[in-house]
Amino acid sequence: MTAKNTNNGFTLMEIMITIVIIGILAALAIPNYSRMVEIAHRNDATTNLMAIHAAEAAYRSEHGEFWPPVGSPQQNLVSINSNLGLEIAANGFAYTCDVGYVCIAWRSGAPGTVNPYAVIVTSNPIQPPNTNPICIPNTPPCSIN
Q: How many domains does the chain have?
């Protein structure tokens, strides 16, 4: 009688090599994914600020001045949405508008994840990508495309 060799499973070495390969692929993919997510957030803030710019132009044509009126304190996102008729979601940014129409989207992620930066729009004509709105400072993630 001869013994049957029935190897139906994987060896420990094959499993370990597979896990190492998956780990290497994950180490390469996760930083790129994080960078792309941050670019999407920055683009979302830029789009929201362009919507605020359009709403400010409509407000000025109706009231003769930009919103918020002179003498008003700095305005937050709730006030921006209600006074300009917008429905902007924060999405990780803090939005503010000052008298004289300078609106800012601040991004200040958890320590070690996102460098703080701001996307700013002013009353100047929209001229993306480098003048209005503009990302300050011009370091990552502002400089990533």
A: 1
pTM value > 0.85: no
Question: Does 2 reside within a domain?
Answer: no
Site of tokens 């407000």: 59
Look at the block and give the residue holding tokens 């996307």.
119
**Cα atoms in the 13 Å half-sphere on the side-chain side of 55:** 20
Distance CA 33, CA 124 (A): 34
Instruction: Report pLDDT for 1.
Output: 56
* Chain centre distance of CA 84: 22
Strands 93-98 and 102-107: antiparallel
Percent of the chain as helix, strand, coil, to the nearest 5: 40, 15, 40
